[in-house]
Amino acid sequence: MTQPRTNRRIAVSLVAVLAVALTGCPNRTRDTDVMAKVSGYKITRAEVDKTFNEQIAGTQQKLSPEQDQMLRLQILQQLIGLRLYLQKAEKLGIVATDEDVDNRVNQAKALSTREEFEKKLQEMGVTESDYRQEIRKNLTIEKLLNKEIASKVTISDADLQNYYNEHKSQFNVIEPQYRLAHIFVSSQPNAPSGPIADKAQNDAQAREKIKMIYNRLASGEDFATVAAKYSEDTDTARSGGELGATPESQLRGTDPATRDAIAKLKPGQFSEIIPITNPTTQKPLGYRIVKLIGKEPAGQRDYNDPNVQQMIRTQLLNQREELLKEAYRENLHDSAEIHNYYAEQILKSANAQK
Fold first, then answer.
1. What is the pLDDT of residues 227-278, one digit of tens each?
2. How many CA atoms lie within 13 A of 313 on its CB side?
3. Mean pLDDT in residue range 16-42
4. Residue 111 pLDDT grade (very low, low, confident, very high; cuts 50, 70, 90)
5. How far apart are CA 43 and CA 80, in angstroms?
6. Following DSSP, what letter does each residue of 229-270 receive, concatenated?
7. Degrees (nearest 5) of the Cα angle 16, 20, 22?
């Protein structure tokens, strides 16, 4: 079983970030506290610094100058993307209601005492008003993507049948298959696959969030519902965390903690919290909870098998949504006037040193 795609995208080259970030005309006289503009909206140094400080909070190792610049570039690019979404939502009249925000905030408050909740806000360096504002932004973007993307993706019975007919050999399995689902929480600050409400920004927040998720599952809440609401693996969250069928041999090649946890499960059971670490550095990447939906013997799977149809539906749904999201992001960028002054500054400094 492969790691979630969020983990695979963590390592991004400085050149790639600069290539995406640099758009628009050359730098000109401006307010030096403005790091970027998005169709007239100013992203200030204070806004970037705030997010930067949240993300490095609790980090023991001091960042090198290059790492510092890289993180700020990534934060700035993320803020540019979020602003594009919010500007589009405003044009379409899409906004999260007070009731939406209240429900999400009350969910967060229910996980701890009032004192613990206030302490968490203090550690994040935000007021409750700031927190509500961020929740509103995230929920607004969720509504936008649901309206513009998810609502437009349909999978017909003919799509399922055609896929099965064209890939019938894929359903003739030569070894037992494990049908798995998972809920993943990343300890990394960025969310390359798109905005995630209540995103964990560091390892401490990731541990707190996965414990909350585990407690919900232990109290009897439906795994798929919890995964759709809280999992930070955006590729699988909408399908209830389903990972599809995993061959027995592939399972043997996954990380030992996940493999050992699955080996102890019976169909319908979920694991304890499993830490995910970088195999080279041993630094934490996040946490997951895995559910064994079922185990199937080798042999040809028939189209009428509900599991086969669900597997195809999930795959086609994810593919089409991902394609539309990428096209949607590109279209937003192309239709906006974007100036990334910070990226220009880095390049100018590099050229000046030659």
1. 988 898 888 888 889 988 888 888 887 888 899 999 999 999 999 999 998 7
2. 16
3. 63
4. low
5. 8
6. HH-S-HHHHTTTTEEEEEEHHHHHTS-HHHHHHHHT--TT-B
7. 115
* pLDDT tens track for 176-208: 889 999 999 998 765 444 445 567 778 888 888
Q: State how far the Cα of 339 lies from the Cα of 40, in Å rounded to an integer.
A: 9
Give the start-to-end residue ranges of the domains of the chain. Answer: 92-148, 157-323
Q: What is the DSSP letter of 152?
A: G
Euclidean distance between CA atoms 239 and 247, whole angstroms: 20
The whole-angstrom separation of Cα 232 and Cα 195 is 10
pLDDT at 227: 92
Tokens, residue 211: 């414990």
Report how far residue 249's alpha carbon sits from residue 177's, in angstroms, rounded to the nearest whole number. 9
Say if domain 157-323 classifies as CATH 3.30.70.270. no
Residue 32: partners with Cβ closer than 8 Å, 6 or more residues away: 45
